[in-house]
Specification:
Helices cover 28% and strands 25% of the residues. By secondary structure, the chain is of the alpha+beta class. Strand 16 and strand 17 form a beta hairpin. The protein is built from 9 helices and 19 strands. The chain has 3 domains: 104 residues, Uridine Diphospho-n-acetylenolpyruvylglucosamine Reductase, domain 2; 133 residues, Uridine Diphospho-n-acetylenolpyruvylglucosamine Reductase, domain 3 (2-Layer Sandwich); 84 residues, Uridine Diphospho-n-acetylenolpyruvylglucosamine Reductase, domain 1 (Alpha-Beta Complex). The relative contact order is 0.15. The structure holds flavin-adenine dinucleotide. The site of flavin-adenine dinucleotide has 33 residues, from strand 3, helix 5, strand 9, strand 13 and strand 15.
């Protein structure tokens, strides 16, 4: 879970985050340094002391010193490069659907990737900006043109960049659902900004995709856009899968508006399932403050209204220690911990 720990590239380093240093106070950058950063990227474009909760699906998290919304690849490169050059800690934010932000917020700059370009090319090819929402925007647009592939990921909150980071996945269509479908099956390549400031075009192999994994966990590359190759499919067939997938999700997953959450908290344990282990330990429905282990799905923690990151962390620790004691399995968090806790 040290995705943004001490060894991580600067733009994804998280002050006070990760298992190793949770709770430890990390001194933030000086006001003068933050001001220099604001001057470098445009003072009128930077917001100060911005609560992060509304920028996450968990609706939890304290303020960022600075918040910058990058609307073009050039703005994203500038925002990341300026942070690196000045030594201002930064975090690259997508839809905020796979993170828990600490109650004390983030010392440095949070850069929201908001590149929402979308271009349709011949042969089922699509070029999508990294900040575009996969659902509903990208999926609706591709389905309307009879292009299949991404429709399997209906109902999952993500940006295109976040989908690459984690190799977005979902069970194959009903009725069989005998395999998991992954984002990389439809990807041809991407434009990335490397940590040394180079903009490169790379193919899918570069990412060494796995389950909940791509190489950018290690490299710290930022994704600027992604090219996809989709499959011409009758629209009625796409809509059938969409209906079935949404119904399947409705039965098992929280309604995001009623129960804000960050999806699965712990990584998959092959053949067993983290949720099943937590359930077997009798923790389903267990609450601490306004945070609760979801009553229908024990690998999801929901915010019942006004939950704090500290309350969520208590439940994470409880699940981990109880499962280890009762079953011998070690649960590993899938979500990223961002900022100071
Ligand atoms: C209700 C719910 C259901 C979910 N169901 C599923 C599911 O079925 N399958 C599944 O796979 N996931 C699921 N998730 C998890 C989540 O949707 C995915 O992990 C998603 O891809 C996160 O994307 P994001 O844009 O929100 O990324 P964020 O949470 O904003 O960021 C996650 C990581 O991606 C990095 N990142 C974001 N943008 C970029 C970029 N442009 N370049 C480089 N790095 C970047 C961030 O720095 C961070 O480290 C679910 C989440 C919720 C809330």
């Amino acid at each position: 879970m040290d995705r943004a720990g001490a060894d991580a590239p600067l733009h994804q380093r998280r002050a006070g985050s990760g298992d190793g240093n949770r709770g430890q106070f990390v001194t933030g950058p000086e006001a003068g340094l933050l001001e220099r950063y604001a001057q470098a990227v445009g003072p009128d474009r930077v917001r100060r002391n911005v609560p992060l909760a509304p920028h996450t699906t968990f609706r939890i998290g304290g303020p960022a010193d600075l918040f910058f919304r990058a609307r073009t690849p050039e703005e994203l490169c500038l925002a990341i490069s300026a942070a690196r050059e000045l030594g201002v800690p930064s975090f690259l934010l997508g839809r905020g659907a796979n993170i828990l932000v600490g109650d004390k917020g983030f010392r440095g700059v949070v850069i929201r990737c908001d590149i929402r370009t979308l271009e349709f090319l011949p042969g089922g090819r699509v070029l999508a900006g990294a900040g575009l929402d996969t659902f509903p925007d990208l999926i609706n647009a591709t389905v309307a043109r009879g292009l299949g592939g991404l429709h399997h990921f209906v109902g999952i909150p993500s940006t295109v960049g976040g989908a690459v980071w984690q190799n977005l996945h979902f069970l194959a269509p009903a009725p069989a659902r005998e395999r998991t479908m992954f984002w990389d099956e439809f990807m041809e390549g991407a434009t990335i900004l490397t940590p040394d400031g180079a903009v490169r075009r790379v193919d899918t192999d570069y990412f060494r995709f796995g389950y909940d994994y791509s190489i950018i966990h290690e490299t710290g590359d930022a994704v600027l856009d992604v090219s996809l190759k989709l499959v011409p499919t009758p629209i009625a067939e796409l809509r059938r899968v969409i209906r079935e997938n949404l119904a399947w999700r409705d039965e098992r997953h929280p309604d995001m508006w009623l129960y804000p959450c960050a999806g699965s908290i712990f990584k998959k344990i092959d053949g067993i399932g983290a949720g099943r282990l937590i359930d077997e330990c009798g923790l389903k429905g267990h609450a601490h403050g306004a945070a609760q282990i979801f009553h229908k799905h024990a690998n999801i923690i929901v915010n019942l209204g006004g939950a704090t990151a500290a309350e969520v962390m208590t439940l994470i620790d409880l699940a981990r220690t109880t499962v280890a004691r009762e079953t011998g399995y070690e649960l590993e968090a899938e979500i990223g911990l961002v900022g100071e806790f």
